[in-house]
Amino acid sequence: MTREKQCLLVVEDELLIRMVLAQTLEDAGYDVIEAGNGLEAIAAIAGDARIDAIITDVDMPGGISGLDIARMARLAGGIVPVLVTSGREHDLSAAGIDEADFILKPYRTENLLSRLADRLEGVAARAGDPSRMRA
After folding, report:
1. Most buried among 48, 60, 102, 107, by the most CB within 10 A?
2. Interatomic CA distance for residues 65 and 74, integer angstroms
3. Is 77 a residue whose pLDDT tops 70?
């Protein structure tokens, strides 16, 4: 079965990290939209593009954090998996973001890809959409 290419929003203010992550995700078969700060992320979420998942760093310039982005994504998009990354530990439950996954930096790319695929597959299964499930 052929599946539609999934689109990910990568929100990372460090340009080199964002570029490497975006390339890694594209190499893994995803379409990627990049945002360098919270305002760009909000514009992408509010735009016309379908976003299947979000990977966001916590600390961002401009007053909108990755935690804020995770909260907004839940309000705006319903069931959209969010992976939150940071070089410091964060308790997502205490921040009111129970549905997101936290990944401590530096992370192994394989770990991030595996957790992303698991979250996307879980959403597809709950939505009853077999075209979104891994082949």
Report:
1. 60
2. 15
3. no
Can you read off the two tokens belonging to residue 98? Answer: 């129970």
Sorted by sequence, the CB contacts under 8 Å of residue 98 that are 6+ apart come out as: 92
Residue type, 25: L
Cβ atoms 99, 126 nearer than 8 A: no
pLDDT tens, 83-118?
A: 999 999 888 777 777 778 899 999 999 999 999 999
Which residues in the chain belong to E strands, given as ranges?
Answer: 7-11, 31-35, 53-57, 82-86, 101-104
CA distance 125 to 117: 12
Q: Helix, strand, coil proportions of the chain in percent (round to 5)?
A: 40, 20, 40
Partner residues linked to 33 by β-bridges:
9
